[in-house]
Write a structure and sequence with these properties.
Nuclear Transport Factor 2, Chain: A, elongated, 5-stranded mixed β-sheet, L,D-transpeptidase catalytic domain-like, alpha+beta, disordered N terminus
Amino acid sequence: MRIDTPRRVLLFPAAVAVLCMSAVTHVQAATQAEPSRTAPVEMSIFFAPAELPEYVILVEKGLQRLSLFKYDGTLSEVLRMPCSTGENPGPKVRSGDAKTPEGVYFFTKEHTRRELAPIYGSRAFPIDYPNVMDIQLGRSGNSIWLHGTNKPLAPRDSNGCIVLRNQDIDRLAQFITLNRTPMIIVNTISQKPVVPDRQTRTEILDFVETWAQSIESGTYHDYLTFYDAEFLPDLHWWMEWYGLRKKFRRNQMSFSIETDDISVFQYNGMVTVLLDRKMASPAGITATGTVKLFLTRRDGGFRIVGEDHLVLPSKLVLKKGDHPLVVAGRKLEPAAIEETEITDLVDGWLSAWSGKNIRAYGSYYAKDFKSEGGADLAGWLAYKRQLNSKYRYIRVTRDKMTIRKDKQRRAVSFIQTYRSSRFKAVGVKELILKREENRWKIYREIWKKK
């Protein structure tokens, strides 16, 4: 009896996702052990950084075999088990052809026994077929799963899914991380996967890093140089993103585009890169999703021939057509404006203090200000006038300023250096700010000697 594919389960429509391949946090990956080999590399795999063991599933349709490899700087096979794939040979082309796709895919969901019809066994993992490269090649179909069975396992006995005995899929499940663990499906390979040589690792990681830098600070044309001439990436978001970048810099708001948790899978001339992309700023780090890049060699270097998001960030509310980077930038924009306003307040206050301009100095304080000694604003300014008359000059500077937020207040801390004609002191100054007359004003002022 042939094992059915999950498209017959009406309760669970296919999760159509897109395949990925990772990019680059590169110094660690570039220093891992060199593989020893003489034959050309057929399949290579690495992760950067590799802080914990990572796992890769390899399905060889020609052998009806599934293998699990562990990556911890080197690759080792840790499990091997029989499987059943599509009834017909060759890569999947269209819906209903009873073929199993070939390529690098990722698991998007997990269904347990209580959610499944008996023919799918103890559990099932949908994969992201068709991915962006499948779609470019005109391949169709969906609902390709890795699942168990309630029948004896027979070779080439499915409509396209990869089928395991229940005890095997239950054993394998502990090594699967959704949207992270790849399943590489091939007909057969003549040699086991290896870790690529140092030069290749460095080249891929450098490519991904400079691609991220082009998003952070490059021009439209800089960004396009990373893409193959025959592939036009989605650029509807670029002009708004470029405008946000200009606002950040005008407001002296620093930010960076960072990549993390990079995994790289090379097979048959295609490099699949999976990476987490983040926007970092003084306001914090905002995840912008997991990105899949497909690379191939062109003109002596790598070029992107396909890209997509495997996972969108859960904390960003995205409307149709929104790009995660733009949405993250929109959230960052008010923070950039506020930081500039607070920085200007502190610098203006220090300038008025250093210039002994009591009128300007007093304008930075809230009406209900209280000093550490309990003086109100009038008493505080009277005290400052007395000091101004006592010293021939006053110079006050700041260093290493930080801003903390709560719902109603802002706490600004910095190293304050005070010099006058008769006195010098260095310490930590904390200003508690509140909104008054649509501006930030100093509500409390705290000094601690360093």
